[in-house]
Fold these 4 entries.
Entry 1:
Amino acid sequence: MGMAAIKPRNIKFALAGEDKRNWFAGNPVATAVMDGASILFPVGETYFIESVVHFRDRVSDPKLLEEITAFQQQEGIHSREHRRYNKAIEAFGGDVGRLEQNLKDEIARWDDSPEFKLAVTCAFEHFTAILADDLLAHDDFMKGADPEFSRIWHWHAIEEAEHKSVAYDVWNIVKPKGLKGYWMRVRAMMLATRVFIGQVHHNAFALLHARGETSTLRNVRRMAYFGFVKPGILRRVLGIYLGYYLPGFHPWKHDNRVLIEKFRAAYEA
Ligand SMILES: [Fe+2]
Ligand SMILES: [Fe+2]
C-alpha cells in the first residue's frame, strides 16, 4: 500500500519562448533526452490511467480507491502539461506528432488483455519512479536548467514518487496466480525497457537532428556520456531497476518519503 499522501497539484507551467531553446544548461543533448522522454508522456499516461481504472471495480479497500482517483488526477494533469511542454519545444525543431505516432503504433502491437496492460503500466511506473527518485536525490541533476523546466520536472518527479505503488497495488489484487503472474510482470518489464530506452533515444536523436545537431557520431558519443558518465543516470539507476525482477518486489521497499518531503513545500499553494 502507498506510504505517501498523493496530492494532485494543478499547475500550469510557462515553457514557451525562444530563450528556452537548449533549456537544460545550454546543453542540446541533455535537453533533447528530457524532451524525448516528455514526448512519450501524453500518450503513455493516458494508457496508464485506462489500465488502472479498468480494475477499479475489483478494489474494495477505501484507501486504495482514493489513491486510484488521485493517481488518475495526477496523471491527467501531467498528460495535459506535457502536451503543452511538447508544443512549446516543437518550436525548436522536431515533429512531435510523428514521434508520438511511433508510440501509438508500438502500443497497437501489444497484447491488450487488461491484465497485461496493467503489468505494462506497473513496469513504466517503475521507470518513472526510479527516474524521479534519481532526480530528487541529486541536487545537481538540473543544475543550470531553465527554472521553469526545472520546476515542471521536479513537480512531475514528486507526484510520480507519491503515486508509485498505485498501479502495483491494483496489480497485486488482480494478477494471475503464481508463476503466470510473475512471468507476465517480467515480460511486461522487458517490453517496457525496450520501448522506453529505445523511444527516448530515438526521439532525442530525431530532435537533435531537427535542431541542427546533425553529426550522428558526435550525438551518439554525447548521449552515451550523458547516460553512463555524467550525470550517468542509466548507470546510477541500474540496481533499483533490477530490483523489479525480484519476486517480492514492491515500490515502497525503496522508501524515499524524505525526498518527497524535501521538495513538497515548494509546490504548496
Ligand atoms: Fe506522470
Ligand atoms: Fe505515474
Entry 2:
Amino acid sequence: MSMSRTPSRHSAAGVGCGRLRFGAAAALLAAACLIFTWRADAAGARFVFLFIGDGMGAAQRNAAEIYMAGMRISSGDAVPREYQLAMNSLPVSGMIRTDSLSGTTDSAAAGTAIATGRRTTNGAVAMNPDSGEKFVSIATLAHERGMRVGIVTSSFLQDATPAVFYGHAKKRTEHASLGLQLVESGFEYFAGGGFRRPSGGSGRDPVELAKLRGYRIIRDEAGLRSLGPGESAIAIHPGISAGMMPWAIDEKPGPSLADFVRAGIRLLDGEGGFFMMVEGGKIDLACHANDAAAAVREVMAFDEAVGAALEFQAARPDETLVVVTSDHETGGMSLQETAWESLKFYGLLSGQRGSHQAFERTVSPSAKSSERDGITRAQKFFGPAARATDAVRMAWKMSMTAKDKRPAKSAEYKKLYGPYDPFTMACMREMNASAGVTWRTFYHTGADVPVSAYGPGSESFAGEYGNTGIFDRLRAAMSL
Ligand SMILES: [Zn+2]
C-alpha cells in the first residue's frame, strides 16, 4: 500500500504545515499538505457513498482481482495481482463481524445493522419485529438534514438491502408495503432494478404513485443520460427479470451499475451534499448458486461503480467519503492453490458463456436429449473443464428425472444440488474446481467481511468491529 495515500489528520506533515502557515514557502508547502491530509476544520463528509457488495467476502474480492490480473496478462500487460480492483486500493481497511440476533445473518438483519446501527432478527427490515420499534437509517438522518439521497441496486428495489435504508417491515417479503414506503420516503433517486409486484397483484402500483409524487420514471439509457441536477427519479434497467438487473456475465444491453451511479451523481449533486447507497445485489445470488464466473463478473461490475464514485471523489477529496463493505459472505467460497495462477484462472472462468441461470433453462427432462448431447452442450457453455466425471453423469440422470420423482428432500441431494438444477451444479463444480475455487454451502456463512474506505472520516473505519459500527462511523463522519 502506498503510504502517500494514507489519510491522517494527525500526521507529522499536517502539524508541520500548520506551523509554517505564514512562512515564505507556506503556499507551496500547504499545497503539498493537501495531498497528505484532509482539512482538520472540515465540517464532515458532505458527499457520501456507501457500497454494499451483498455476499461479498474476502475470497470474492480476491477472485475478481486474480481474474482481472489474468485478463490483463492475457492481453500482453505485465501486471501484479494487487490493486486490480478499485475497492482494494482504498487506503483504509477494516473487518466487520456479521452475525445477527438469529445467528448467521440474512441480508435484512445485516442491512439493518449497517443502515441503522441496531441489531435485529433475520427477516426484519429496520425494526424490532417483536416490540414494533422502528429504527432510523443513516439515509433518513441525512435526508432530514437536507442532504439528497440515492439508493441504487442491481437487485429489485424492495429487496432487503435497499429497503432497510427507506422502510420498515416485520418481514422482508412485505413487498407491497415496502414499495409504497419507498415512494413516501421522498428520497430523490432510486435506480438499478425495478419493483417486484406482490403475488396476487393487489395494492397500489408504486410506479403510478411515484409519478404522482413528481418522480420521473426512466426506463432506457437515453432517459438516464438526460437526468440532471435537482430532479427526482426512479431509473429502472430496461432488461429487468424478476425486478433485477440482468447478470453482468450475460452481457445484455442496457446501463451498467456504474452508469446508474454516474447518473445519480449528476442528479443528487448540490450545495446540501448527498448520501448514496449502492448495492451489488447479485454477487450474493451468484454465490448462493456457487457460480464463480458469474460472481466474479458481478464483483467487477460493482467495482466499476466504486470507480465512478472515486472519479467524483478525485474532484472533491476534502468532502467526499467512500466506504465499501458487505453484509455477509455467501457460499463459503475458498481459493485453492491453483486459483493464484491468474492466467489459468482467467482462462477457465472467462470460458463460461453465461450465468448458471442461462444454462439451467436449457436443461429439462422434457427435452428428451441424450447424455452425450447434454455433456457436449455443457462443455460448450462451461468450457472443457466441465469434464464428464461420474458426478456429472449422475447429475445428468437426476436432471432428466421429473422434478417430483427426485429425492430432493434427502440430505445428500440437498448437499449436492441445493435448490438448483443438478446437471448445471455438477458441471460448474468441475470447472470451478479446475480453477481452484471450492464452495462449502449454498447459503450464507458467519465469516467476517472486509471494509475499505477513503476520504474524510475514513480513518475510523480501520480495525475490527461489529457491523453496527458502520452506522456509528458514518454518522460521526457526516456530523449527523
Ligand atoms: Zn443471500
Entry 3:
Amino acid sequence: MQVNMIGWKGNHIAHMNFGEHAKMYGSPFWNFHRAALQKRLLDRAVELGSKVLVKSRVSDVKFGEAGGGVCTVLLHDGRRLSADLVVGADGINLAKRECLVGHPDKPMPTGDLAYRLMLKTKDIIKDPE
Ligand SMILES: Cc1cc2nc3c(=O)[nH]c(=O)nc-3n(C[C@H](O)[C@H](O)[C@H](O)COP(=O)(O)OP(=O)(O)OC[C@H]3O[C@@H](n4cnc5c(N)ncnc54)[C@H](O)[C@@H]3O)c2cc1C
C-alpha cells in the first residue's frame, strides 16, 4: 500500500510504500502508541543500568573544560555532571546544539506544515473520492 502526502496546492510532498518498507526491514509495518514505545525504551535503558534524573534542567554544556574529552553538563540547580559523551536530545529548540556551535542556531521553517483532524468513518464513506 502506498500513502501520499499532498501539499495544499496539490504538490507532492512525500510518499511511503508500506510494502517496500516491510521488505527492506524484513518486518511488517507496526503502528503503536508513542507512550508504549517510550515506556519500552525507558524500561530497557534502566535494565541496562541507566540512571534517570528528573527535575534536572540543563542550563549549559562545557566541552573539554577540565582537559581531555570530558564534557560537563551544568544543571539549573547548580549540579555539575561530567561524562565522556553527552547526547543532546532537547527537542526542536536545540539549545544544546547552540552550546556546541557557540552561537544561536534556531530551527528553520521549511514552509511545510501538517494539520491533523479526525473524521467519522461514516462521513468518509459518503464521499466517493
Ligand atoms: C501535537 C504534536 C503532534 C505530533 N504528532 C506526531 C506524530 O503523529 N508522528 C510523529 O512522528 N511525530 C509527531 N510529532 C512530532 C514529534 O513529537 C517530535 O518530532 C518528537 O517528539 C521529537 O523528539 P525529540 O526527542 O527530538 O524531542 P522532544 O520529544 O521535544 O523531547 C525533548 C525533551 O528534552 C527536554 N528538554 C528540553 N530542554 C531541556 C533542558 N534544557 N534540560 C533538560 N531537558 C530539556 C524536554 O522536556 C523534552 O522532554 C508531533 C508533535 C506535536 C507537538
Entry 4:
Amino acid sequence: MNICKERAFDLLKQISFQRIAGTAEELKCAEMLKAECEKVGVPAVIEAFEIDMPEIHEAKLEVTKPEHCEIRCVGIGKSGVTPDEGLCGPLLYIEDGMEANLVDAKGKILLLSGAAKPEVLERMRKSGALGYIACHGSLYDPEEMIPEIRTRSERRKPGEDANFPGVVIHITDAQKLLRMNPEEIRIIVKQDVDKKGTSHNVVATIEGTEKPEEIIAFSAHYDSVIYGTGAWDNGTGSITIMELMHHFVKNPPKRTLKFVWCGSEEIGLCGSKAYCEAHKDEMEKHLFNINVDMTGVLLGYEKAVCSCDEIVAKYVDFLGRVEGFPIVTDVDMYPSDSSSFARAGVPAMTFARLAPKGGAEIHSRKDIFEVLDPNAFINTVAFMVKFSDAVVNAKVFPVPRQLPKELVEKIEQMKKMMGEDKKTEKKDDEKTEEKK
Ligand SMILES: [Zn+2]
C-alpha cells in the first residue's frame, strides 16, 4: 500500500479554508488538487459548470407591533422577492410544517423549526401564507455564532416561478422571537434570483492496464459552506481519494480509474450532477462510483451506504469482519455525490466516518482540523484500499448494473419532487420529434 497519513494531512492543512461554491477560493482549491495529481504524473483537468448563484440585495426581519425590534437574518436565495415596503402579517410557528400546522396559515408569516424540505415548501406556498422564516444552528451555540447565519437557496423545479420570500435566522433568535409573541412582523427580501455563477470539478484519470474501457469513479466534494474551514466536511474525503490515487499510481489498476473532486456539493450535489451530464456518453462505461464524504474524525464510527445491489453492503460487512474494521452498512440513497451517480444509473456508494451525538459537527465554524486524527484517517484509507483493489481488479466485475427496486422507486420520487421527470419526458418528446 502506498498511502501516507503525513502527506495527506499536510495537504488537508493546506486546503482547510472556506471554499464556497462558485467562489475564487473554491477554484483555488481545485487548482491545488489538480497540481497535486500532476506532481505524481496523473493527468487532471478542471471542468467548469454553471451554477445558480442568486444575489441577495437586502434581507430584513423586524417586529413591527407592539414594539419595534429587528432580528438578524439572511435572505433565502430563489425564494422570492417582497414589495419595497416588505410583507407584514402575524407570526405563526409551524414546527415541522405538517398539514395540521398550516390550517391557520393564510395571510401569516410562517416560522418553521429548521430548513424547508421541498414538500413542506410546497405546502407552505399553497397555504396562502405571505412568506416564511427558516432557522438553523443550535440553542447551545456560543454567542459569536449567532450572527453567522448560513446562507441557503431553494432548489426550484424547472419553470417554477412561485414567489414566496423567505429568510433564515439563528435558532436562538427564533426562540426569542416566539417568546416575544409579536402582534405583527415584517420581512423584506430583495434579490436577483436568476444570477448564475461558475463552479469546477477536478477530474484525474489513471488508464486501466487490461480493461481501459471500463471505468470506476472515485469521488469526493471539495467545496465547503460559509463560516467553516470544511476540514472534516469534506477536506478529509478529498485527501482520502487523493491517497487512493497515490496507491493506484504505484499499483496500476486493471480498469480505468477516474478521481473526481466535485465542486458545489453543498448547494445540491451540483458538481456530481454536472460530471454525469458532461460525461453522459461514457456513463455506460462507468461501472461503479465510490464516494467519500467525511473521514478522519477521532471520535467516530465507520459507515458505508450502498446505493446499489445489496451484494456490496454484504461484501463490505464481510471484509470489515475479516479485517477487524467495524463498519455499519446500509442499502439506501445518501445525501452526497453518490446519489447523482445512482440517479444516472451507475451503482454507487459512500464511505463516511461519522461522529457520535455530542461529537464533531459540520456546516459551521465548528468544523475544525482539531477534531481530526491522522491514525483514524489512515485506518479508513487502508480499508478502502483493500476494498477498492478487489473491485477495481476483479476478474468478473462483481457489482450488478441494476439498482434494487426500492432505490429505483426512491429515485423516481426524488425526480418527481424536483420536477425532473417532466424534463426527461420533454427531452424524449424532442428526441422523437427529431427522428421524424
Ligand atoms: Zn459533505
